[in-house]
From TrEMBL:
CDD domains on file: PBP1_YraM_LppC_lipoprotein-like (cd06339)
Keywords assigned: Amino-acid transport, Signal, Transport
Biological process, per Gene Ontology: amino acid transport
PANTHER family recorded: LEUCINE-SPECIFIC-BINDING PROTEIN, PERIPLASMIC BINDING PROTEIN OF ABC TRANSPORTER FOR NATURAL AMINO ACIDS
Keyword Transferase belongs to the record: no
Pfam families: Peripla_BP_6 (PF13458)
Protein name: Penicillin-binding protein activator
Ranges where the Leucine-binding protein domain occurs: 57-398
InterPro entries reported in the protein's UniProt record: BCAA_transport, Leu-bd, Peripla_BP_I
Family per similarity comment: Belongs to the leucine-binding protein family.
Region (Disordered), start-end ranges: 237-256
Amino acid sequence: MAGTKPAPVSQEVRPQVVPPAPLPAAPQVPVTVEPVAPAFGGGAMSAYGTRLADKDEVRAALLVPLSGPQAGLGQAMSNAAQLALFEVADERFNLIPLDTKGTAEGAAAAAQQAVAQGADIVLGPLFSPEVKAVAPLAREHGLPVLAFTTDRTVLGDGVYTLGFLPGSQVNRVIGYARAQGKERFALLARSDDYGRAVADAFRAAVPAQGGRVVKVEYYDPHAADLTSAVRRLTDADQRGRGKGNETNQATGPVPFDAVLIPDDGSRLRQLASLVTYFDADPAKVAFLGTLLWDDPRLSNEPSLQGGVYPAAPAAAHQDFEARYGRAFGALPGRVGGIASIAYDATALAAILARQAMGDYSPQSLTNPVGFAGVDGVFRLSPDGTSERALAVRQITASGPREISPAPNSFVTPGM
């Protein structure tokens, strides 16, 4: 009911974990979200609520699916947020988990509960339709939203995301390839929203880093045979390797020396095999991916040996998963990547709440020096997007290995 003060999270429901050991001097990988800068200046009244230093209690509403088909994922995110509460927050910070049911209608109802319970900030929700449903009410009541979506079309005007957007991933892997001397870049992408988002980032990143976009081809992700798209990408017809002539000797090389293939699973395996079949020699052409490539099973694909992709720095994330495991049990598969975002969002909200003059204003949330979280350094932009400092990993027969570490700040040369 509106005006009713929610009960704070009791010590009994907080995870019973052993706090992490103190970090050594000048740690290379931080384990909790902290400002990269020593402190925030100012302390002006926020456009999204009153100054937090003036409040006896700061309330963060966590909107995740705690029932329905995605309840397992939502519970892992809630657990991670509780872990951040235990490790980072002070006594003034109150976390209010609310069930979105994984639907737009459920998210809208949860947002109404957040307003009724006096939330100062909204953490989540996860899915794009949920964020669209929550945003109008949050803006009406001046609540900033730290969402977990990767759909940048729902961001802005007080709605931010901590999700791993394609832009940071593409920038990092293109920058690495340029540093290795690659100049002519091709993209082979799905003809869906994700593929088009990667294409937009690709077209911006390549020329910005001194390369040339020579090919952009799309394929139907539902098609059983992807050969035609790969023939177009590799100029197979012009090189004498067109349909019906696949076994001919090519009259020349493929028109690129680096190719980005942002897909996963069996489609990625088929595409990589076809690209090599149509004369893209992995010894000469760099095969590039996105976070979708972060799958140890790809080490068994010969065409992808030596391929590189961006990824969060491993050490701090592994430490987070170990602490989570001691409290709640092991995180399954890629759920850990989503749960860590909920941890960072909660830790960020808690850190800003305990700043002496802190607030959740756009100026505080978009501090240009960023924050250090369990998935590396990140920062939020005024348009609601996020930028992340990522490592580069290489696929090898013995598993992925890190070949370029993630920068510890956004001013590191070579980022």
